[in-house]
Amino acid sequence: MSDLIDAETVQTHRRICPFCEQNCATLVKVDHSTGQVLQVRGDKDDPLSQGFVCPKSVAVKDLHHDPDRLRGPMVKRNGKFEPIGWDEAYDLAAEKLREVQGRHGSDAVGFYAGTSIGHVQGIALYTPTLLTALQTTQIFSSSSVDCHPHFLVAAAMFGALSSLPVPDIDNCDYLVVIGANPYQSNGSFLTAPNVPGRLRAIQERGGKVVVIDPRRTETAKAADWHLPIEPSADAALLLAIVRTLFEEGQIKLRHIELYARNVERLKHLAKPFTPERVALATGIDATDIRRLAREISEADRACVYGRLGSSMQSFGSVTNWLINAINALTGNLDRVGGAMFANAVFDPVILSQRYADGSIPYGRYQSRVSQFPELAGQFPAGLMIEEMETPGEGQIKALISMGANPVISNANGGGRLSKALEELEFMLSFDIYINETTRHADLILPSPSQLSHSDFMLFYAMFAVHGYTKYAAPIFDLQPNERHDSEAICEIVARLSGITRQQADENTLRMVFDQLRAEGQPVLSKMSFEQLLQHLGSEEGEDRIFDMLLRAGQYGDNFGERPEGLTLAKLKEHGEAMDFGPLQPRIADMIHLPDGKIDFAPELLVADLARLEEWLDEDRSNQLRLVGRRQVRSCNTWMHNFPSLAKGPELCVLLINPHDANERGITDGMKVTLRSSQGQVRVPVRLSDEMRRGVISLPHGWGHDDPEVPGQPYAKSRPGANYNLLADEKLIDVPSGNINLNYIPVDIVVETA
Ligand SMILES: Nc1nc2c(c(=O)[nH]1)N[C@H]1C(S)=C(S)[C@@H](COP(=O)(O)OP(=O)(O)OC[C@H]3O[C@@H](n4cnc5c(=O)[nH]c(N)nc54)[C@H](O)[C@@H]3O)O[C@H]1N2
Ligand SMILES: Nc1nc2c(c(=O)[nH]1)N[C@H]1C(S)=C(S)[C@@H](COP(=O)(O)OP(=O)(O)OC[C@H]3O[C@@H](n4cnc5c(=O)[nH]c(N)nc54)[C@H](O)[C@@H]3O)O[C@H]1N2
Ligand code: SF4
Ligand SMILES: [Mo]
Q1: Closest atom of ligand 2 to CA, residue 115
Q2: Residue 732, SS3 per DSSP
């Protein structure tokens, strides 16, 4: 590591960028004499990211030094936030949560987690301990905003939430991208830093990239073929493709044949969806549909990959079911260059539930108000509002928000959700900012700086295109008023459960151990918890759990059985990431349904086809449909106050096709009012032939005009508008309950001066 030391006080540290799923390896240069972060750049030695970083990476510096980032706990007294000591904060949190549960029952405490928990491992690994202590079923998260169709389909077809195919993009030569724009988002459910570069490599080796998206996105522009689909019509298109594959005798399941159930049923279900029948609703010609089916099946190594636009839409579950089915029917599931499964260094521990006790992790109990089925132990995020508003036993009276900003990121967040938050008896937020959501809290407990805690690839290992692992040590010591999230959670759990913090920490480790044993993890199944503790030692915190995962995993030292194998100590000594090679076929490990087969026509998804049929026959030609878009210099709701990103042209701009604009007397640069059944926002307009006719596009995450949020001068200087004021939390993908923020009927009101 000596090459990383420039001068006595200036050092460069290997870290992981915390801003998206790519987990790019960074080199962060720091002057330890002043505590200043001097530079952030890509790490060329990293086997996965190979020096790649996007413009967001430098914002780690802004985040670390941001004066508005909370440096200690804050309590609200007489409507104003003021600092409070940690011990007092823990006492208050536990006392209030217990009080509310004492008065109204366990379910009176609700829980909402956001995306950033995927980048704070102390939160990711310790949240289950907190939820166990609280015994509430009122659990929600942003995963029912964009992931639940993927999880439900994985559970229904394969029997496990984590059986999620990943496109093997480095070996693929025909990639169909449905509703993803990795040129801006950097890619999701696909951890392969520099996705744009990897897409270009497909083309350079003679392959093709096809993009299905209502907008001619940056990714579509770089692709070989763009199909401008009507939003939410993907399921109909894919059914027509399935039908064509059968009709033209193009089915070749290869080794999947052995594991296939209900293939004939799928053939029968797809029969009514001829390319001619779906052409009008999808906006894609029957000839193009047949051509696409043929090209996928004739390509040597093809893969259909769907992400946000495939799931956050009216038919997210059916769409993702058919994506898997087409990959399998064309011989590309679990095959090099097709849709593979991660070769993770350890077994998945987050969202890893599988078929057990006669059921997949779905519908084991129902929500209180709408009787909606749970998925993965959560209810759809859109239901949180009614669970807060509707009186009766089990009504949410207190809320814990964890790294989430649903007031901006969720439907009706700025409307009914904000009002409901104000009515709560108590709100506790784990967050590093006072923002549009946490300003409603009574108590906020911040994480330490990103650079003051360790980091490692945990959740996203499930999506990596290589067996890859990395550990990054903290750069800075904790400041006197900083606490690790794992410690803060254990302190609260200790108070709630009448145990010590050390016991709460050990219980957390034990929960992961028990979970993996219940899933039949071969190494841990052979040992007792006491034996495990002897190997791992007594040091508290998330690193100990990571050590267990590494050591029990397929490359681990298996606690001495394979002395040459991996341990956390070895990974730390190595100092950088380790790469265990590309994806390998492993379908048998991924199927957890009792008959050992993949279900090609799960009943709970088949049941949604009737709704699709109805939708196909509706006339929407007079109605504008709003969809979202991501931009590389923005990340959901929370990165708009970083000076390095808050420059360049205004981002929160509505895109509309010039013909649609002309018809309404709208000109470029004009400000208009967008109105839906739920609310209205004012936004500037840009005319763009990127847009499909009838479809308009606006980014989400904006609307930083709340006067109660202190500081944040850059975010406030260009606040943008809150897209989700227009969204209706009742518009969902029915099987999974995933909210649909992408297909909102709106009118444009043009004010004439
Ligand atoms: N209209 C529309 N809405 C959308 C989307 C869309 O495409 N269109 N996308 C949706 C998607 S995919 C998602 S995932 C959701 C995201 O929804 P959220 O997760 O609610 O939104 P984020 O902006 O990612 O929120 C991150 C929160 O974590 C906090 N945070 C950051 N770092 C830390 C940390 O180290 N510790 C702690 N404790 N907190 C931290 C931030 O201050 C912020 O409050 O938004 C959804 N909303
Ligand atoms: N810069 C940046 N990067 C991010 C984020 C961010 O906010 N900013 N957020 C992160 C998060 S939380 C996530 S989940 C990922 C998401 O990453 P991606 O999955 O790449 O999502 P988007 O970039 O929003 O692209 C979704 C596309 O779907 C299209 N679309 C909308 N409706 C439909 C439809 O019905 N059918 C089809 N076929 N397409 C449709 C939209 O036009 C859009 O181009 O990005 C992550 N990375
Ligand atoms: S793509 Fe950009 S934001 Fe995502 S991890 Fe890499 S550098 Fe960070
Ligand atoms: Mo997301």
Answers
A1: 12
A2: strand
